[in-house]
Specification:
Length: about 450
C-alpha cells in the first residue's frame, strides 16, 4: 500500500480545507496505480482457478474482469482513468457479486447464522439457542459463536423478510464504509472518500464481504477506535467504538488491552481509566442482559464452541499451525491452546517491557498479536487475516498525509493527472500540501 502513495496538488484556493481532504482531485503516477489493480486481478484469477468453493470461484471470475478493466482504464484515460478505475473495481469486485449473491441466496454459513440469530432475537429475545437444544443438534452451524451485537445486522431480514436490501452483507458493507471512512478522517488521512472506496473494492474487503463479511464492520470499528486516540485523543468516543466492536466479536478484545496500555503510558492513569470505563460499560450494556438471562447459552455458543470444547467442532478449518496441531487428537488440541496462551503471554510481556507510545506502534503490536492468534487458534480460517491486513492498510493510508506534508509541492516524475476539478468550483490544481489517493 505504501507504493500506492499518489501525490496530489490541492486546489486550496477554491475548496475549504475541511472538504479538500475528502474530495480534492489527485495527480498520480498512473503506472503504480495500474500495477496495483493488475495485482488484484491476479489474486482474483487465482481464486477463480484454484478455490474449491464455488461461491469463491464466482467472485474470482467477476472480480478479475473488473480489476483488469480498472488497470486498463488507468493506463488508457489520462485525465479520468483513476476515477473510472475506482468505479469499475467497486462495481465489479464488490457491488455486483454482493447483490447477485444476496438476490440468489448464495452465502457462506456465517451469514445464515446471523440471519437465524437475528430471528431468534426478534421473536425469542435471545440470539442463542439453549445449551440443551444444542446438545440434540449435530450441525455446527446451529451454534452462534458471535456476541450479541452481531445479530443486529440480521434484524432487517428478521423484520422485513428476504431480499437484497435485508441481506446482512449489505449492512456489513454500509457499516464498513461509514466507520472506515470516519477512521481515515479522524487519523488525518486525505481524500477519505476515494481511499475508502479503494480499500472496500480491494480483495482484502470485497472478497470477504461478497461471500460472508462478519469481520468487516468489526475491523472498521477497531480502526475508528485507534484513530480517535491519535491526532486529537477522544477517549470517550474511542471507548464507545471499541466497546461496541468487543460486544460483537471477541477478535476485538485485544484492541482494548493495546489501547489501554497506550493511553496509560502516553497520557496517564486518568485518561486510561476513562477509556476503560466507557469501553467496559458499552460492552456490558450490550452483552450483560444476555449474560444475566441466558448465561449457559452464551457460554456454550461463544466460549465452548469457538475453543473446540463443545461436542461438535467448528467448521472453520484452514491448514494453519493451530488447526493442524489440534487435529492430531486431544493432546494436540491441548498443545494448540497452550501455544495460543503462550503467544498471548508473550505479547502481554512485550506490552510491559516495551509498551507502545503512539498509535502506529500500538497498531503494529495489535497486528502482530492478531496474526499469532489466528495462526495458533485451534479453529481458524484464512479470512481472519483481513484484520491485520486492513489495520496495516488503514495505518499506511493515514500516515501518507504526514509523510508527504514535508515532501514539497513538486510533482513526481511520471505523474499524470487523474482527477476532475469539482464541478462548478472553477478551480485548477495548483501548488499545495501533498497527500494520497482520493
Amino acid at each position: 500500500m505504501a507504493m500506492l502513495s499518489l501525490r496530489v496538488a490541492l486546489a486550496e484556493r477554491n475548496l475549504p480545507g475541511r472538504w479538500a481532504r475528502w474530495v480534492t482531485p489527485v495527480t498520480v503516477p498512473r503506472r503504480w496505480c495500474a500495477a496495483v489493480f493488475a495485482a488484484c486481478a491476479i489474486f482474483a484469477t487465482g481464486v477463480a482457478l484454484f478455490s474449491s468453493n464455488g461461491l469463491h470461484r464466482r467472485w474470482g471470475v467477476i472480480a478479475a474482469c473488473a480489476y483488469l478493466a480498472a488497470a486498463v482504464a488507468v493506463l488508457a484515460w489520462r485525465s479520468h482513468g483513476v476515477d473510472l478505475a475506482l468505479l469499475l473495481s467497486v462495481g465489479g469486485a464488490l457491488v455486483a457479486p454482493l447483490f447477485w449473491n444476496a438476490a440468489t441466496g448464495r452465502r457462506q454459513p456465517e451469514v445464515t447464522v446471523i440471519q437465524r440469530s437475528a430471528g431468534q432475537l426478534v421473536h425469542h429475545h435471545s440470539p442463542y439457542q439453549s445449551a440443551a437444544a444444542l446438545a440434540a443438534i449435530h450441525n455446527p452451524n446451529a451454534y452462534n459463536p458471535y456476541l450479541p451485537v452481531m445479530s443486529l445486522f440480521g434484524v432487517p431480514r428478521a423484520l422485513f423478510g428476504p431480499g437484497m436490501a435485508t441481506d446482512p452483507r449489505v449492512w456489513f458493507g454500509l457499516a464498513f464504509l461509514i466507520f472506515f471512512g470516519l477512521a481515515l478522517a479522524a487519523a488525518g488521512a486525505r481524500h477519505v472518500v476515494r481511499w475508502t472506496l479503494f480499500v472496500a473494492a480491494s480483495p482484502v474487503i470485497a472478497f470477504e464481504l461478497a461471500v460472508g463479511g462478519t469481520d468487516v464492520p468489526i475491523l472498521a470499528l477497531m480502526c475508528l477506535g485507534l484513530a480517535l486516540l491519535w491526532r486529537r485523543p477522544r477517549y470517550i468516543l474511542a471507548g464507545l467504538a471499541i466497546g461496541v466492536a468487543a460486544a460483537a466479536k471477541a477478535t476485538a478484545w485485544p484492541t482494548v488491552v493495546v489501547a489501554a496500555v497506550l493511553i496509560g503510558v502516553r497520557d496517564g492513569r486518568g485518561p486510561m481509566l476513562r477509556f476503560l470505563g466507557v469501553t467496559i460499560a458499552a460492552c456490558a450494556a450490550l452483552i450483560g442482559p444476555v449474560a444475566i438471562l441466558w448465561p449457559s447459552a452464551l457460554v456454550a455458543n461463544t466460549i465452548m464452541f469457538p475453543l473446540g470444547l463443545a461436542d461438535i467442532k467448528s467448521a472453520a478449518a484452514s491448514p494453519l499451525p493451530g488447526h493442524a496441531i489440534a487435529q492430531t487428537g486431544h493432546a494436540g488440541h491441548v498443545i494448540a491452546i497452550a501455544l495460543l496462551v503462550l503467544a498471548g503471554v508473550a505479547i502481554a510481556v512485550s506490552m510491559v517491557v516495551r509498551p507502545p507510545r503512539d498509535v502506529p506502534s500500538a497498531t503494529w503490536r495489535l497486528v502482530i498479536g492478531l496474526t499469532l492468534m489466528f495462526l495458533l487458534a485451534p479453529a481458524t480460517r484464512f479470512g481472519y487475516f483481513i484484520y491485520p491486513g486492513a489495520l496495516v492498510i488503514w495505518l499506511e493510508v493515514s500516515l501518507l498525509a504526514e509523510r508527504q506534508s514535508g515532501a514539497g509541492s513538486a510533482e513526481p516524475e511520471g505523474a499524470e493527472p487523474a482527477g476532475r476539478v469539482m464541478a462548478g468550483s472553477g478551480a485548477r490544481p495548483g501548488p499545495g500540501p501533498m497527500s494520497g489517493l482520493g
